[in-house]
């Protein structure tokens, strides 16, 4: 509310108080200003020479509604909360502070900055940078499938919540409290674009050069370039809910799209819940991620493409009964620059919708300290001669472990590893290691696989009941509380 409105409110309050007093209203122990204007009856006691004390008028105005911060626009209310809409393009810095009684929204495509090109040392001269900073506890929502937030190459987002106050990107229906366990595809999602190497180069361009770039799925933005250490910002203690949108047939927005992100970007303690498409999809890049949770997503939860060469440690996937596809789908261009992701300490709990891990083409993926259960019928499937897998300290619990049977390529790759086993799942609480999982020796030397990995003495994402990294900031893991 503007300052002029506060002044007007105060004047109206004082005027109303004077009018009430003139009519004899007010507290019984406060003398009316009209007393003494009429002579007392003959038998009355003369009035006192000193007037009784009066209650002073209020010195502060009544409380006002939450005010939208600079750079956003008040567009009314949603569920009794002031709705502050982000601009369609953020240039310079925009801060979204946490304010009680206030919620933020995106309307249509919302850009952070302008595309600065794939050459980190020589950004496009006319392009302008944007930086979006979001405080812990903030909620940002979209109202339709075409509402999404995109951070362009050269710009940054700093969404840093904490375990008690995560930052939530969600749908209008979620803010209004009308979603349920099968609510998906109610707004677009997050699209983060960077300048790290990708495989989908145009013409004769080579991976890792400024001219090797591609248009991101579902949006008119470009990713890729020559900076493997590129920094698109921070996502930490962030939850993305009820997202995903089919822009065209087979062209869709995911919960979070991570396209060409460099190793300077931080992605930790992030959940995607109930996306209508993939939960997390990596298109190339070298970004590492830790403590990822995917719940209820309708397509693949971890999907890698276009030459992704980063690492994921501590990943937890739970499919919902009403939907889901593969828990991992890995694909890329064929040789020579194929995807080479490594996953460590991951637990995948399927609901029997498809094979759990499907490796398409152009991918060499490593699984370390992994627990896979609930694939139907198989845990692992290789679909191309240009894809392969490395397995160490991995426990498979599906109807059958390998789509190709005991003599197939999947079985050969699994048997070539160390400390691998198959058997019945003994997970407790849905995803916490039980006796069979705890019996598998952990892989020694994760730091040699990826410098961002931490060595641990257990497999899976959650060691035991005392391992609570997922508590407080996620939803849907132990109850339908989303």
From TrEMBL:
Source domain of life is Bacteria
The secretion signal range is 1-24
- Record's keyword annotation contains Membrane: no
Biased composition annotated in UniProt, kind: Pro residues: 38-64
Q: Where is this region: Disordered?
A: 23-74
Q: Which UniProt keywords apply?
A: Signal
**Protein name, as recorded:** Lipoprotein
Q: Write down the species.
A: Lysobacter arseniciresistens ZS79
């Amino acid at each position: 509310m503007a300052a002029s409105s506060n002044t007007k409110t105060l004047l109206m309050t004082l005027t109303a108080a004077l009018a009430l007093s003139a009519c004899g209203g007010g507290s019984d122990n406060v003398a009316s200003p009209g007393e003494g204007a009429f002579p007392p009856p003959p038998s009355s006691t003369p009035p006192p020479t000193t007037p009784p004390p009066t209650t002073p008028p209020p010195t502060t105005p009544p409380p006002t509604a939450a005010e939208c911060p600079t750079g956003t626009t008040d567009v009314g209310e949603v569920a009794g909360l002031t709705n502050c809409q982000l601009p369609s393009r953020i240039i310079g810095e925009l801060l979204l502070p946490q304010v009680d009684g206030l919620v933020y929204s995106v309307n249509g495509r919302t850009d952070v900055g302008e595309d600065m090109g794939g050459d980190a040392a020589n950004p496009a001269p006319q392009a302008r940078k944007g930086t979006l900073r979001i405080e812990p506890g903030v909620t940002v929502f979209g109202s339709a499938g075409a509402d999404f937030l995109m951070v362009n190459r050269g710009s940054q987002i700093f969404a840093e919540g904490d375990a008690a106050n995560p930052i939530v990107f969600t749908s209008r229906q979620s803010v209004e409290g009308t979603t349920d366990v099968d609510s998906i595809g109610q707004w677009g999602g997050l699209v983060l674009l960077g300048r790290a190497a990708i495989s989908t180069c145009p013409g004769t361009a080579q991976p890792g050069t400024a001219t090797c770039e591609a248009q991101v799925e579902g949006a008119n933005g470009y990713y890729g370039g020559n900076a493997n250490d590129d920094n698109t910002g921070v996502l930490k203690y962030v939850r993305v809910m009820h997202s995903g949108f089919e822009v065209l047939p087979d062209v869709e927005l995911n919960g979070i799209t991570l396209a060409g992100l460099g190793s300077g970007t931080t992605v930790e303690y992030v959940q995607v819940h109930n996306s209508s498409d993939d939960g997390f999809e990596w298109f190339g890049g070298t970004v590492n991620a830790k403590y990822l949770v995917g719940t209820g997503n309708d397509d693949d939860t971890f999907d890698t493409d276009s030459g992704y060469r980063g690492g994921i440690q501590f990943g937890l996937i739970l499919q919902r009964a009403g939907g889901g596809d593969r828990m991992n789908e890995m694909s890329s261009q064929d040789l020579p620059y194929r995807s080479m992701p490594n996953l460590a300490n991951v637990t995948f709990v399927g609901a029997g919708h498809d094979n759990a891990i499907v490796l398409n083409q152009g991918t060499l993926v490593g699984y370390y300290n992994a627990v896979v259960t609930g694939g139907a019928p198989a845990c692992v499937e290789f679909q191309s001669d240009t894809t392969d897998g490395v397995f160490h300290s991995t426990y498979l619990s599906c109807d059958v472990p390998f789509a190709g049977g005991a003599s197939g390529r999947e079985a050969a790759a699994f048997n070539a590893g160390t400390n691998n086993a198959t058997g019945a799942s003994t997970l407790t609480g849905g995803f916490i290691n039980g006796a069979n999982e705890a019996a598998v020796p952990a892989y020694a030397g994760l730091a040699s696989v990826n410098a961002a990995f931490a060595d641990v003495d257990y497999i899976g994402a959650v060691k035991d009941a005392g391992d609570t990294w997922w508590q407080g900031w996620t939803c849907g893991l132990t109850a339908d509380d989303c």
